[in-house]
Amino acid sequence: MTFRLTQLHQRSIAIMLLLSTSMLVVVGMTIGLLCHAAFEQQRERLNYIAQDHASLIENFIESKKTQEPLSQESLLQYIRSLHNVVSGGGKTGELVLASKTKKYIHYSVINRSAQTGSPERIAITKQLAQPMQRALSQRTGSMIGLDYKGTVVLAAYATVKSLNWGVVAKIDVAEVRRPFIEAGIFALICAFVMVAFGAILFFRFSIPLIARLESGERRMRAIVETAVDGILTISPDGTIETFNRSAERMFGYHLEEVKGQNVTLLMPEKYRSKYCKNVKDCFVDGRNKFGSNCQELVGRHKDGRTFPLTIAISGMSEDTRDKQFFTGILRDISAQKQAEERIRYFAQHDILTELPNRLLFHEYANKMLALAKRQDYYVSVFFLDLDGFKKINDEYGHSVGDKVLQCVAKNISGQFRAEDLVARFGGDEFVMLLEQTQHRTEAAAVAVAVTVAEKVIKALSEPIEVNQLSLQIGASIGISLYPQDADNMSDLLRLSDKAMYQAKSDGRNTYCFHQSSRITSLRSAS
User: Fold this and answer.
1) Whole-angstrom Cα distance, residue 339 to residue 8?
2) Alpha-carbon distance 409 to 356, whole Å?
3) CATH, range 227-337
4) Which residues of the chain have pLDDT under 50?
5) So what's the architecture of 7-177 in CATH?
6) So what's the pLDDT on residue 502?
7) What is the dihedral sign for C-alpha 43, 46, 51, 54?
8) What pLDDT does residue 88 have?
């Protein structure tokens, strides 16, 4: 089973590599320090051997000066008796004594661990026998250089001044380093095995966990991307970091267009400064200026149009990086607002004809009467009931009857001005209010009311075409006049309703005033 190297996988591998590198560095430094300590210890030991032997030889020579003459053979025999093997010198440790002539270095004694042939002399060169050349130059010390064999050695050198001989105690550098190199190789192998074993265990337990995290992340991403609501995240500086598909549809932008842009891009110009301040305050002191519940705001589409939306914002932080951000859940409520507006509209309007209903009529009528009282003008109240509508409704059904009512409402509204009021009270009853702001006498107000009533009756007397049917109806209208008949709408409606029934009694398809004498007076005046 293979696993996709996601960012989490890469971080896990990086951690393993970092730990492995750290362990190798520590092991390497430890071995290096031990190797350095061993070199220093070996250097001190060789210094002691070289200087001690030089001192012993000097003392031996001094002791023999007062006795019989010292022969070279007895001197060499004494020197060989000092050490057959350099103590602790390993396989390559040697103690070398030599003298020199003009062109050659003459080796007198070579005590060594490995019993191999010793040269009698070698030519003096800059490359070989570097420690011995220093010893023969009356110098004392230690160094790493080439011996008479051309091998790199750690050597200590001293001078037997009375004989002008050089003493060199040395050991191959490779032998000093060998145990540490072997230890380093062993440590590297162990480290590799431990790292490999640790990596196997780590991935054995972490990969299923990472797989579950990835699966959960994919599910969460799928939920976010398929959510009906728009979802976005905002960084502390107000820039947009994520933007799901619903948000793309809502605002008309693609993720690539808004990522890294300030969130005010999605807001109308007049709201931007306030939104920016609220977002800034949220990140400064942790206060959610948007509120914990949904709030209604205004969004701005890419094409410039605005629309209402709700937003629920919550502040969050990533513990691993201590990074704060906001998550906003957005919902376009344009359809909801339209539905609410329609509900409010039909709460005050008749559903069939969309004329004002009783509720809106009384609200508007009371304002009209109050204004008429202040400005001292007349208001005519018309109460209309259709003649012959019940027969049509019973014979052709309610669907035809509804269409007839819609035509009637349209015809009646066409006879009144925009500032007047035409309302449906229910069934086939309609009420109209006529403002007569230009007429200051009762006779003029009555004349105008008569003219309007006759226009309405004439309009409703025309045949109505519904579903290829030519239908004929009429209207009986009762009229009352403010302020002569009453000073409140309830009484005016009652009086105009009573006059409407009088019109029906008079033969239908006509009009009647509450005070019938007004018609007589009007006719006499004309």
Assistant:
1) 47
2) 11
3) 3.30.450.20
4) 1-5, 85-86, 114-117, 286, 291, 320, 523-525
5) 2-Layer Sandwich (3.30)
6) 94
7) negative
8) 52
